[in-house]
Amino acid sequence: MTRVGITFNKNHHLHDSLLNGYPCPENPQRIQNILEYLESSGLIDGEIFRFYDSIPASVMDILRVHTREYVDLIKACTRDPRQSPGNDVYVCPSSFDVTLHALGCVLKAGDLVISGECRHAYALIRPPGHHAGPDSCNGFCIFNNSGILARYMLEKKGLERIAIINIDAHASDGTYAAFEADPRVLCISMHQDQKTLYPFKGFIKDIGVRPAIGYCINMEMPTESGNPEYSLFYDEVAEKILDKFNPQLVILECGFDAYHKEPLAKLNLTVDGYYRIIFKLASKWNVVTLLEGGYHDDLGLLASVVLRALAGLENIKDEVDQIDLLASRHAKTRKEFNNNLSLLKARLEPYWGHI
Ligand SMILES: [Zn+2]
């Protein structure tokens, strides 16, 4: 059995702000960087890792999460790219078509896993999706890729419990908006302290609404948080709740902007930090990983780390001396992290018991 299937939307380069005359960090070079790195690394062997083609998703799939009015707004913006459907979101004439192809890759990744063809899958897609809610979008996102996959699995494949985990530096506010009242979907977002970073949503106090109170979890990671803090959060909260929820599928919103070289955020994950969490997830559950943010030059390196972790291969040697990162961190960061972790545990105790 092929262990990890990979999909990517081949027309992603048609979604490019340069076509509108201005640059943006969310650009085609991101996936190009990943594909070139994977090719030169020789990692994709056709056995453990294999690329799969996909067909475009349909508008009906988008409507599993988004309103008809919102879909019409996006279409209207593609006809007049001077319009923007949200803050920091651009659209080009082909953007709607690009999103249908991206969603097709996402649904294919889910199908590969559910059918047993692959143990895990990785959809390398753009634009990202986790800031897109049912009727709004922000932050480079147009449609909520993870949410549409979750609803597709619930409605078409008969699944009953799905977890969506966000490891992007930015809070997964669009996903939260889509599932805050849906107890079939457990949303866990670990992201940079929302007093210090866009979208300034996703606070510890935000845990969903009836009938899904406790099923949305937001962990605010203080600036400069790195591998130790992420591991502690995963081990002490995320994994314990996942064990209790027992998802049939995990969808990972995997942004690479929590990495220590990311210019748009202030976190310190290294390849080891990403590897450890994804390895642990993949050792227990079927995981469909989706590319979200990340705007530095190491996206290819990190994508290869994701693949290694999903397949259970050894990690590559970490590229930095983590002592440097630890030494640069203020004691204030750990103190703030410990405080946030305690607050979160107390907030969740009525719904998940003592963790
Ligand atoms: Zn991000």
Automatic annotation (TrEMBL):
* Recorded GO MF terms: histone deacetylase activity
GO biological process per UniProt? epigenetic regulation of gene expression
Q: Where is the Histone deacetylase domain?
A: 25-298
Gene3D superfamilies given in the database record: Histone deacetylase domain (3.40.800.20)
Q: What is this protein called?
A: Deacetylase, histone deacetylase/acetoin utilization protein
